[in-house]
Amino acid sequence: MPHEHPLIPLITPLKMGNFNLSHRIVLAPLGRLRCNDKNVPQPHMAIYYSQRASKGGLMIAESTGISDTAQGYPRTPGIWTREQVEAWKPIVDAVHAKGAIFFCQIVHNGRVSNRDYQPNGQAPISSTDKPLSSQIGLNSEADLYDPPRRLSTDEIPQIVNQFRIAARNAMEAGFDGVEIHGAHGYLIEQFLKDQVNDRTDKYGGSLENRCRFAIEVVEAISDEIGADRVAIKLSPFADFNECGDSNPEALGLHMAKSLNKYGIAYCHMVEPRLNSDGEIKKAEKSNHSLVPMRKAFNGTFIVAGGYNREEGNKAVAQNNTDLVAYGRWFLANPDLPKRFELDAPLNKYNRDTFYIADPVLVDAASVCELEAQSVEVVILMLVSTTADSVVPLGPSGESKSSVLCEENEELPSNDALIEV
Fold first, then answer.
1. Is 73 noted as a catalytic residue in this protein?
2. What CA–CA distances, in Å, run from 240 to 107, 243, 420?
3. Which of 64, 272, 304, 362 could lock 237 by a disulfide, CB 3.0 to 4.6 Å apart?
4. Would you call 20 helix, strand, or coil by DSSP?
5. DSSP secondary structure of 96-128
């Protein structure tokens, strides 16, 4: 007899436009910094993504640069060259083999960069010429941001076109859609927010003008690949990368309402409760909420921001969202939907491995393939696993005792990182 479980809101189906989802748990876009120095995705990324794929689950690939001026971090993927597009294909195929839906997040970092990442050592581009201050960057190393060059009004359509071409390339690579990165202080948000955007042309000043660039990108990509394959991520309340706004709720509402014209696949928003480090604010409760944006947007809505199982179930049950994006917990627990279904223990993520090039990091508490296992075996394995257990490792870090893993499959690392 199959085991009966009470209704779990996160484990209920949803029709997202033309896509049929089997559950509400989304793999958030998370940079792993595991590409080569030409921003070409590497073969091990197929293992990494396929481990976290489930039939009918929605996954969002890590931030992927649209052009050679879009980069701002080492070893991040791109999708503007033939080599990059071809490298993405087997990764996408591996995800589709598990029956998952795979969107590619496309991004331009704008001023969150420096000359080392720019062609010919030129200045990064932005809506402004105001520089970022020096900050503690990846792995606690100081990132020095060069002053950006303000884009001229005539140059902006060129950037819109780069987003359009990147979306077309993503379709060629086999992705099911693209998520436009309009959050976390990158180029699109540098136009959206009045604490950064100091322009006096048609892309600055009023709320409508500041949103113009983002809407032009949405429209161009919708015309290219179809609005049902287009999504956007926004963080109106956040101040990541020194990018805040004087009236974030008005900004979020304006964007939500403006997007309704296009009928895009989904809108993905970051909760107000996150601080600039991606942590939940210590205050008991934020004065703001995404609920007004949820109500204003007519399509599928995704929330992100430090959710656990209980909070995710509550948000879906109360109709405050359709889907919940999970980052760190998903990386430390590649079988997260199954664990949430069973209310099983979760592996704790390890901050020391947030950004690391080595894809084979093994933690004894990690387990992978659960699909072929009976519920009884899964529960037994998950309940009996402890953080103190020891798994013998091979010379390259592979586990010699992978009870639930296929012979040549990489064990998932017990790691995770802040959404990007």
1. no
2. 15, 6, 10
3. 272
4. strand
5. HHTT-EEEEEEE--TTSS-GGGSGGGPPPEES-
- Structure-block tokens of residue 255: 């964007």
Predicted confidence at residue 301, as pLDDT, reads 99
For the chain, the first-to-last Cα distance in angstroms comes to: 43
With beta carbons less than 8 A apart as the criterion, state whether 225 and 116 touch: no
State the pLDDT confidence band at 276, using cuts at 50, 70 and 90: low
Q: Which two tokens stand for residue 20?
A: 């049929």
Strand duo 135-136 + 142-143: pairing: antiparallel
Cα–Cα separations (whole angstroms), residue 182 to 174, 315, 321? 22, 23, 19
> How far apart are the C-alpha atoms of 348 and 333, rounded to whole Å?
8
Which of 13-17, 173-177, 180-184, 391-395 shows the lowest per-residue confidence on average (mean pLDDT)? 391-395
Q: What is the pTM of this model?
A: 0.85
CA gap 411, 367 in Å, rounded: 7
Tokens describing residue 197: 């955007």
Of 117, 186, 203, 266, catalytic = 186
Please list the helix, strand and coil fractions of the chain in percent, rounded to the nearest 5, in that order: 35, 15, 50
Q: Which two tokens stand for residue 116?
A: 């080392």
C-alpha span between 41 and 34 (Å, rounded): 7
Residue type, 220: A
Degrees to nearest 5, angle at CA 75 with 72 and 81? 85
Residue 185 has pLDDT above 70, yes or no: yes
Which range has the top average pLDDT, 102-106, 133-137, 278-282? Answer: 102-106
Which CATH architecture describes the domain 9-362? Alpha-Beta Barrel (3.20)
The rounded distance, in Å, linking the Cα atoms of 262 and 220 is: 11
Rg of the chain on CA atoms, in Å? 21
Local confidence band at 377 (pLDDT 50, 70, 90 cut-offs): very low
The per-residue pLDDT of the chain, averaged, comes to 85
- CA dihedral (152, 213, 72, 26) in degrees, to 10, reads 180
The contacts of residue 287 (CB under 8 Å, 6+ apart) are 272
Average pLDDT over residues 286-299: 89
C-alpha dihedral (269, 272, 273, 275), degrees to nearest 10? 90
pLDDT in tens, 324-348: 999 999 989 999 999 999 999 999 9
Q: CB neighbours (10 Å) of residue 197? A: 22
Q: Pull the structure tokens for residue 27.
A: 């793999």
User: What are residue 96's phi and psi, to 5 degrees?
Assistant: -65, -30
Longest CA pairwise span in the chain (Å): 68
